[in-house]
Amino acid sequence: MNLVDIGANLSHESFSDDLDGVVTAAQAAGVSHIIVTGTDQKSNEAGLGLSNARPEVFSFTAGFHPHVAESFDDKALLSVRALANEDKCVAIGETGLDFNRKLSDPQTQLEVFEAHLKLAAELGKPLFLHQRDAHPEFIELLRRYRDQIVGGVVHCFTDNQQALEDYLALDMYIGITGWVCDERRGTDLQTLAGLIPGDRLLIETDSPYLLPRTIRPKPKTRRNEPKHLIEVLYTLSRCCGRPAEQLALETSENAKRLFGVGPG
Fold first, then answer.
1. Which residues pair with 220 in a beta bridge?
2. Are 264 and 32 in contact (CB under 8 A)?
3. How far apart are alpha carbons 8 and 50 in whole angstroms?
């Protein structure tokens, strides 16, 4: 298979000692391309570095996660704009709203999210989006800018059917992680997965987070890796009633269409 992991936090410190091995294992598991998620200044620059070092394997996104919205200022905006103009930067983000943990003031999050939307519209880049417990405010802003942006993915989707329908109505892509592999909290998502059209589905690990609970034997560590993307694919295959090979092709073609990355 030629899978594309559209979201992996490979700048995380847990990968500092064995990243080469992580990439080798991912390739052996059928992952041909990995988009490195940018969430702040440090991870944005790390994504650029990885992508320049191994352009056949990596591309990256550039943005400021809602958790760190209060650190976003004019200097940060200039930096994101500069990084977004790099050939290997495939999206603006991670950006959006998170009213679950509220690590940044909600009003500040709204302002920073809108700044990212404006930048994506200006540069013609797709968006890598985050939303948790903030759907009404999130969808309102997204609708306001939808005709100005080229598209995007609502990454790590875990919301309800109404939210899913709202995003699909805007022709957004839906990113599914190992959350769908969780027999405790992923059951609603397992039901909704079959409602995602084949031309709007993307898969991701969100490494090192969200280790799939379907892995057997159980790993010795809780660190997730891109090699485990296959677990997301197989679980989705069971939920959607479509062959894993078909889903692999669909999701890779979607990544190519939205981000311009992947096989072929």
1. none
2. no
3. 12
What the block records as the tokens of 96 is 């959006």
CB atoms within 10 A of CB 17: 9
pLDDT digits (tens, 9 = 90+) for 151-189: 999 999 999 999 999 999 999 999 999 999 999 999 999
pLDDT digits (tens, 9 = 90+) for 10-29: 999 999 999 999 999 999 99
Are 113 and 97 in contact by the 8 Å Cβ rule? The answer is yes
Q: Please state, rounded to an integer, the average pLDDT across all residues of the chain.
A: 97
d(CA 112, CA 108): 6
**Burial code of 195-218, b = ≥16 C-beta within 10 A, e = fewer?**
ebeeebbbbbbbbbbbbbbbeeee
Instruction: Delineate the domains of the chain, giving CATH numbers in brackets.
Output: 3-259 (3.20.20.140)
